[in-house]
Design a protein that fits this description.
Helices cover 71% and strands 3% of the residues. The protein is mainly alpha-helical. The chain folds into two domains: 2-89, RNA polymerase sigma factor, region 2, helix turn helix motif (Rna Polymerase Sigma Factor, Chain: A, Orthogonal Bundle); 119-187, Arc Repressor Mutant, subunit A, CATH 1.10.10. Strands 1-2 form a two-stranded antiparallel ribbon. A hairpin with a 2-residue loop joins strand 1 and strand 2 (105-107). Helix 3 crosses helix 4 (69-91), helix 6 (140-151) packs across helix 8 and helix 7 (156-163) crosses helix 8. It is elongated.
């Protein structure tokens, strides 16, 4: 098969269109199949396969006959499909003003507000005050570790190095501090 492809390619490079037609017929099925599996749309796959053969015809002189032609053409097919999908993904971005199709026709887009209501905001503010109060009641060895971990975002290892205490001690103190804080919240009647 490799020798057959090599002969056809040599003929194509000399301008024999019949040889290119034979190559096209030989590979159009597998190329289309790859395109279809990649883009999952028959029309797009047909367009890509056609585009591929135009490209292959234009760059056939770059083919290295030391390698199988099938590998070369399939690699080009794969790259072409990946590029197509990337471009399609970028085009998918829609304006927020663009209406959407519904079963009763077009309708304006509606968005859920990400703002929290005043009741929820007050509740969260109250919980933060209680959290700060609970951290303030922690014994000093627990409090410093909680502050370093949750307010300074240090890793357990960094806390261990900074305080010159074993890693296991850091983990145990954080675990114990969390339990104390949860108990503090429960005593205040807050469950979550």
């Amino acid at each position: 098969m490799k020798d057959e492809d090599a002969k056809l390619i040599r003929s194509c490079l000399k301008g024999d269109e019949k040889s290119f037609e034979i190559l096209l017929n030989k590979y159009k099925g597998p190329v289309f199949s790859i395109c279809l599996r990649m883009v999952r749309n028959r029309d797009d796959a047909e367009d890509l396969a056609q585009d591929l053969f135009i490209r292959v015809f234009n760059i056939l002189d770059r083919y290295n006959p030391a390698f199988p032609f099938s590998n070369w053409i399939y690699r080009i097919t794969s790259n072409l499909c990946i590029d197509f999908l990337r471009k399609k993904k970028r085009k998918k971005l829609l304006s927020i003003d663009c209406p959407i199709d519904g079963k009763d026709g077009e309708m304006p887009r509606q968005f859920v507000s990400t703002r929290i209501g005043p009741d929820r905001e007050m509740e969260l503010t109250e919980k933060m005050k209680i959290l700060e109060e609970s951290i303030g009641t922690l014994p000093e060895p627990y409090r410093i570790i909680v502050i370093l971990r949750h307010q300074q975002h240090l890793s357990y290892e960094e806390i261990s190095d900074m305080l010159a205490i074993p890693l296991g001690t850091v983990k145990a103190r954080i675990h114990r501090a969390r339990k104390i804080i949860v108990d503090f919240f429960r005593r205040r009647g807050i469950k979550d």
